[in-house]
């Protein structure tokens, strides 16, 4: 039997305190803060494999490797590295509540963030909390913490989009909730 030659390989080292299980394109990362599982079977993976040997994860492509395949390899590597960082340190996004006309009040309940009295509107604007993410309201700040960077970032984006000002001059109405800090660590 002949050994398969790989044309392109990306390597992810597994740090102490983290454990990775690879089952085809399903990757599970366990760490001191929790566990994240992602299924990468949706990628166009004709010539791409993910495997673990010892304390290293290999993301490999064989055959003719085009630029698009190299991009897939880099994306998979970044996702796995973010999963490792998430279960060992976590992610925190900080948002600032900004208003000049009407005082905004923010409440978190039932898996959603309710933004009340935004530019004087009677009905509250609602932003969905994605995944297992914790949202904390502290005076003029909103703090979003979680293990999965995708869920933390999407929750922050949902809140920013919910407070987007429409049909008014954005230079005058600067009211909204905006991300001002992205940190590693909880």
Alpha-beta classification: alpha+beta
How much is the radius of gyration in Å? 21 Å
Give the H and E element order: EEEEEEHEEEEEEHE
Number of strands: 13
By DSSP (H or I, 4+ residues per run), the number of helices equals 2
Measured between the Cα atoms of the first and last residue, the distance is 49 Å
The pLDDT mean sits at 92
Query: How many structural domains can be distinguished in the coordinates?
Result: 2
CATH topology of the largest domain: Outer Surface Protein A, domain 3
Beta-strand residue fraction: 35-45%
The amount of helix comes to 10-25%
Task: List low-pLDDT spans.
Answer: none
Q: What would CATH call the homologous superfamily of the largest domain?
A: Ribosomal protein L6
What top-tier CATH class of the largest domain fits best?
Alpha Beta
Which CATH architecture of the largest domain would you pick? Alpha-Beta Complex
Overall 3D form? elongated
Strand order of the largest sheet: 11-12-7-13
Largest sheet: 4 strands, antiparallel
Written account of the structure:
There is one protein chain. The protein has 186 residues and is α+β, with helices and mostly antiparallel strands. The chain folds into two domains: 8-88, Outer Surface Protein A, domain 3 (Alpha-Beta Complex); 91-184, Alpha-Beta Complex (Outer Surface Protein A, domain 3). 19% of the residues lie in helices and 40% in strands. It contains two helices and 13 strands, in the order E-E-E-E-E-E-H-E-E-E-E-E-E-H-E. A four-stranded antiparallel beta sheet has the order 11-12-7-13, with helices on one face. Strands 1-6-5 form a three-stranded antiparallel beta sheet, covered by helices on one side. It has a three-stranded antiparallel beta sheet with strand order 2-3-4, covered by helices on one side. The model has no long low-confidence stretch (mean pLDDT 92).
């Amino acid at each position: 039997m002949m050994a398969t030659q790989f044309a392109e390989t990306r390597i992810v080292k597994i740090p102490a305190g983290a454990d990775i299980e690879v089952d085809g394109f399903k990757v599970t990362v366990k760490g001191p803060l929790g566990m994240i599982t992602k299924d990468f079977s949706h990628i166009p993976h004709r010539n791409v494999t993910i495997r673990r040997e010892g304390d290293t994860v290999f993301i490999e492509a064989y055959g003719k490797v085009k630029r698009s395949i190299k991009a897939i390899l880099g994306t998979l590597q970044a996702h796995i590295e973010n999963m490792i960082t998430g279960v060992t340190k976590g992610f925190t996004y900080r948002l600032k509540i900004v208003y000049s006309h009407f005082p905004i009040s923010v409440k978190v309940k039932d898996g959603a963030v309710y933004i009340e009295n935004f530019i004087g509107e009677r009905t509250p604007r609602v932003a969905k909390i994605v995944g297992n993410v914790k949202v904390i309201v502290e005076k003029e700040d909103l703090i979003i913490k979680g293990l999965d960077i995708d869920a933390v970032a999407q929750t922050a984006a949902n809140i920013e989009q919910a407070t987007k000002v429409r049909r008014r001059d954005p230079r005058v109405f600067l009211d909204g909730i905006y991300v001002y800090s992205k940190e590693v660590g909880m």
